[in-house]
Design brief:
Bound molecules: heme C
Structural class: mainly alpha
Low-confidence stretches: none
Order of helices and strands: HHHHHH
Mean pLDDT: 85
CATH class of one domain: Mainly Alpha
Number of helices: 6
Largest sheet: none
CATH superfamily of one domain: Cytochrome c-like domain
Helix content: 55-70%
Strand content: under 5%
Radius of gyration: 21 Å
Length: 119
């Protein structure tokens, strides 16, 4: 009897691990508390909500907004999130929407920043 309940406990533990493993594989930035930001905190644009909710599982959106990248570089970044941090792959139409928002709202810095006054 005792033996059987031990076995049961062991298999319950195994089941818990099997369930927890895919969650634990996602890399969350330490100290991050989801829910601190809202999509409205960031530049308006088509696809803002989709992008916001796709990206805030593991870190602040501020981390993203601080970058200024070309569409190709954003594409590489999204791929990197999947390869290195186990983000579920984003593909097809959803990826298009997200890349368009990212490259429009956060383009390479020199395009929106300082302009040479002597030109
Ligand atoms: C599964 C978790 C996860 C998701 C979802 C995720 N990221 Fe990340 N991301 C990370 C981790 C962890 C880091 C910090 C470690 C690092 O710098 O590579 C990071 C860092 C970053 C950085 C900073 C890189 C740098 O060089 O400082 C950018 C930009 C970024 N993510 C963009 C995105 C975008 C855009 C999305 C949504 C399409 C996204 N992330 C979704 C895990 C994730």
């Amino acid at each position: 009897m005792l033996r059987q309940s031990k076995l049961l406990a062991a298999s319950a533990l195994l089941a818990a691990f099997a369930f927890a493993a895919p969650l634990a594989a996602q890399t969350t930035v330490p100290g991050y508390t989801p829910g601190e930001e809202r999509p409205e905190d960031f530049p308006e644009g088509q696809g803002r909500d989709e992008t916001f909710y796709a990206c805030i599982a593991c870190h602040n959106f501020k981390l993203i907004a601080a970058q200024g990248l070309t569409r190709n570089a954003w594409d590489d970044t999204v791929t990197l999130m999947t390869q290195r941090h186990n983000m579920p792959a984003i593909e097809g139409a959803e990826r298009e929407v997200i890349l368009t928002y990212l490259s429009t709202a956060f383009p390479p810095k020199q395009q929106r920043g300082w302009k040479n006054p002597f030109n």
